Write a sequence for this structure.
């Protein structure tokens, strides 16, 4: 009789570690109800992450972001008291946390490394998660690039990545800003240029109603902000007389920001499309929250699933045979 009990317990234990189709990781317990998932970016190589998990009367599991510093993990309740937890996949790069039954919410905090890098005055963070999560920014960051599109933070705290996915987020350490003053119809306007590339030969042509300048480095973000009254839009942007892709956004009332990433050095010309018959504007708009590329499943997990299933079938057959005896 005891042997039968042990075998049944073994079957149940094996079943608890079988992964579901929605998850690419092995875990113990049911998938947790995550009320909040946040990753906070600042001007450092460390990314701070927080999960808020709803109270549960059963053991639950929470997948962690890639790049977690295991030693930084803490789990507390609403009052800040530490709670017991387990780590699955320790040091394997696909860790998850097991939280035991609790009548209060659980708050998980930890840090990430190797996801945020710094080069040539530009921070680049590559963050991925399989569920909807928010990316928050420290107060010192007021503009960033999401998958090469500029976004002004203004009074927002950050963005929401619906459905989860991969996000590449970049922002300047020190904003490289150039201010050029131009005159048009007895009015003076400031044209703001933000870029890590060197700018030469800035010029405003009243006749063609266009702005032009020379860029000396390729693949550098370039953002031009000005009062809409100056060129009045719609806009055409040329690089060495060829149209290039750009993103238009409204930075503040009556101001427009045009962002691009030129793939070659040469002359940039920004003009009113009404002065350039036959040219078609290529543009895109930023919409938040954003939809990003989904994270693919790890096919290795399905091999593990198959192996575990075979073991379960064998154990069940053994139980049936022993019962018949």
């Amino acid at each position: 009789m005891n042997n039968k009990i042990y075998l049944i317990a073994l079957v149940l234990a094996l079943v608890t570690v079988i992964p579901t189709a929605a998850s690419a990781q092995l875990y113990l317990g049911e998938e947790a109800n995550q009320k909040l998932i946040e990753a906070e970016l600042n001007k450092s190589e460390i990314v701070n992450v927080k999960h808020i998990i709803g109270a549960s009367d059963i053991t639950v599991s929470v997948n962690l972001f890639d790049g977690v510093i295991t030693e930084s993990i803490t789990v507390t309740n609403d009052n800040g008291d530490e709670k017991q937890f387990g780590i699955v996949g320790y040091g394997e790069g696909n860790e998850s946390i097991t939280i035991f039954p609790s009548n209060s919410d659980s708050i998980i905090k930890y840090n990430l490394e190797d996801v945020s890098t710094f080069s040539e005055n530009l921070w680049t963070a590559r963050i991925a998660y399989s569920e909807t999560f928010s990316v928050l920014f420290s107060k010192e960051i007021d503009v960033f690039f999401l998958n090469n599109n500029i976004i002004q933070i203004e009074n927002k705290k950050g963005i929401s990545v619906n459905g989860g996915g991969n996000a590449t987020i970049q922002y300047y350490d020190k904003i490289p800003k150039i201010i050029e003053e131009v005159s048009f119809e007895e009015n003076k306007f400031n044209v703001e240029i933000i870029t890590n590339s060197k700018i030469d030969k800035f010029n405003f042509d009243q006749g063609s109603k266009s702005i032009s300048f020379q860029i000396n480095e390729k693949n550098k973000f370039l953002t031009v902000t000005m009062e809409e009254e100056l060129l009045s839009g719609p806009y055409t942007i040329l690089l060495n007389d060829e149209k290039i892709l750009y993103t238009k956004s409204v930075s503040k009332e009556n101001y427009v920001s045009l962002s691009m990433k030129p793939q070659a050095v040469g002359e940039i010309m920004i003009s009113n499309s009404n002065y350039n018959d036959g040219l078609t504007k290529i543009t895109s708009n930023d919409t938040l929250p954003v939809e990003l590329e989904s994270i693919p499943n790890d096919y290795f997990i399905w091999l593990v699933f198959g192996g575990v299933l075979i073991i379960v079938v064998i154990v069940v057959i053994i139980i049936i045979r022993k019962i018949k005896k």
Summary: The chain is about 15% helix and 45% strand. Helices lie at 2-16, 228-231, 299-324. Residues 1-27, 277-300 have pLDDT under 50 and may be disordered. The chain has two domains: 33-172, 177-275.
